[in-house]
Amino acid sequence: MKIDLLPMKYARLTKEQFDELHKEFINFLATQTITAKEWDDIKVNKPEVAEQELDVFSDLVWEGVLSKVEFIEHISPQQIHLFQLNEENMHLIVIKIKNPIDLTSTDGFNWLRENLMDEDVEFSQAKKDYTDDKNSDKFKLIQQGGVITKGDLFSYLDKLIN
């Protein structure tokens, strides 16, 4: 019997993430009427089916998380990209530093806080519409190093520059 494997939409959760979501995974298996004993059997005798169950569960978790995300930050040594993920588009605030300060360091970030209006600090903003798959767009930002946040930095800077 050949099973067609569906391609994953996002990425498989890490072992640590699965450990955190152990109860939810058990409930997920239960919705498919898979008992603990059957799951142990599947892992041993049908590893490809077990892999697919892990992938499907991972995608479900990501879908739930991504549908609730409102802010993503991406901080690199010379730039900060702050995304507010609205219903219809992404609002982006970009901060660029023209001198060799590393914003990923505590010292660099503190320098920025104290020197926001310095001539070496440049602000810009943009709005970008989503593609047909909003959650996929959000996931790409995370894959590129973005981190889900509560949006405090975005909100602060949005008030400051607008």
UniProtKB/TrEMBL annotation:
InterPro entries: DUF6495 (IPR045470)
Domain of life, per lineage: Bacteria
Record-given protein name: Histidyl-tRNA synthetase
